[in-house]
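Reminder to self: tokens first, then the designed residues, so the page reads top to bottom the way the pipeline ran.
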């Protein structure tokens, strides 16, 4: 990582920003009047007390979903995985990012790159293992044998013969920008003006005494959830509103009456003092002066307690399905039974969240339902809806 061109030290780790700016890709298309009408159903400029949540059809409509794929997931820095999976030269991981097959790999030169994980010949998925280390400096398509080097350049196209207008340069892998904010890897499919380190600045400031960069990864859990990705994010951003009712164990660890939300430009923080340890083992494992639940637009959460962090990446799998990836990090001093206990407790909380999110999705399929108001705790949710609506509106206005 030290070979990356730009790095900024932060308490969460290091931000590495790429120098390459790939050509604009993607297929936004001309927005239809129908799509514009759907997007105009939500006014992000209303005062909080007058606002209502985003319309139910936004959680199930294929047109809205495609607009989100090309804008929300196509134009922003989007968290896709873990720096620890791509530390050494030739290491890689792959992920479906709003249904775009993406490969993130570290070249033999030490630089981190991201590509569409698709062969330029007949669109075969290239890397098929979820992560690994390449045995040489090539990515080979095992369908007809086209080969790419680790900068994405097509270096071999066997038996192609004469093809008018063909050049190897024109058939490189489609590049995306890759950047990191330890321990997370981000990609951006289209160039933009957002600066990753500016987005993370509030987090850097508020966590600089927490020695997060010394925490070690202890495991991953992945979940498929039967809801639109926004239902899952909404649930995270409701200011703790659902914690007393849905999470009977977790509520014992938090001082709910002092649970607060703070809004920043492209992220928000929910924080709550934690209760002191008592005989309840869940409380004992979630100690620390404060629990912090960060969300970074559009799809990543960072949960912090004393000596422990888990990151949650939310990736759409369709209008009514998403995947959530949990990675767990612990500071030295956590023994294995305590780590196992923390991960088991987090799994239980996730089952509770998934259950309610899937019930919400079933409710949102109704044509009778209308958007409800925001309660006093749900400012983070409105902030998310505003960011989302403004980005969709900008995209259809262009
Ligand atoms: S699809 Fe990759 S070589 Fe033909
Ligand atoms: Fe929850």
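Designed residues (398 positions):
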């Amino acid at each position: 990582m030290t070979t990356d061109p730009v790095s900024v030290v932060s308490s969460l780790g290091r931000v590495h920003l790429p120098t390459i700016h790939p050509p604009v890709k993607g297929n936004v298309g001309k927005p239809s009047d129908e799509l514009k009408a759907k997007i105009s159903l939500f006014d992000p400029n209303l005062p909080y007390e007058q606002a209502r949540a985003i319309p139910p059809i936004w959680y199930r409509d294929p047109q809205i979903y495609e607009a989100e794929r090309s804008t929300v997931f196509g134009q922003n820095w989007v968290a896709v995985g873990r720096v620890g999976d791509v530390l050494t030269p030739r290491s890689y991981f792959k992920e479906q990012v709003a249904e775009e097959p993406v490969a993130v790999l570290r070249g033999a030169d030490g630089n981190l790159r991201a590509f569409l994980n698709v062969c330029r010949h007949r669109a075969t998925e290239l890397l098929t293992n979820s992560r690994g280390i390449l045995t040489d400096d090539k990515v080979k398509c095992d369908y007809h044998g086209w080969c790419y080097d680790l900068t994405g350049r097509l270096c071999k196209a066997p038996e192609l013969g004469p093809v008018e207008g063909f050049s190897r340069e024109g058939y490189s892998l489609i590049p995306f920008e890759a950047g990191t904010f330890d321990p997370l890897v981000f990609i951006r499919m289209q160039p933009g003006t957002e600066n990753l380190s500016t987005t993370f600045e509030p987090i850097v400031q508020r966590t600089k005494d927490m020695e997060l960069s010394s925490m070690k990864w202890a495991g991953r859990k992945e979940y498929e959830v039967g809801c639109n990705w926004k239902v899952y994010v909404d649930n995270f951003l409701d200011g703790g509103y659902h914690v007393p009712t849905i999470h009977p164990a977790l509520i014992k660890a938090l001082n709910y009456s002092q649970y607060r939300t703070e809004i920043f430009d492209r992220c928000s923080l929910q924080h709550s003092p934690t209760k002191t340890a008592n005989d309840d083992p869940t409380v004992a494992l979630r100690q620390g002066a404060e629990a912090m639940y960060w969300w970074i637009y559009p799809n990543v959460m960072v949960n912090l307690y004393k000596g422990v962090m888990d990151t949650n990446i939310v990736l759409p799998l369709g209008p009514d399905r998403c995947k959530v990836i949990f990675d767990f990090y612990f500071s030295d001093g956590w023994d294995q039974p305590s780590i196992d206990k923390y991960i088991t407790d987090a799994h239980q909380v996730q089952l509770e969240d998934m259950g309610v999110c899937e019930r919400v999705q079933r409710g949102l399929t109704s044509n009778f339902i209308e958007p409800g108001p925001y309660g006093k705790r749900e400012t983070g949710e409105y902030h998310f809806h505003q960011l989302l609506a403004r980005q969709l509106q900008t995209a259809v206005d262009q």
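Confidence is low (pLDDT under 50) at residues 1-26.
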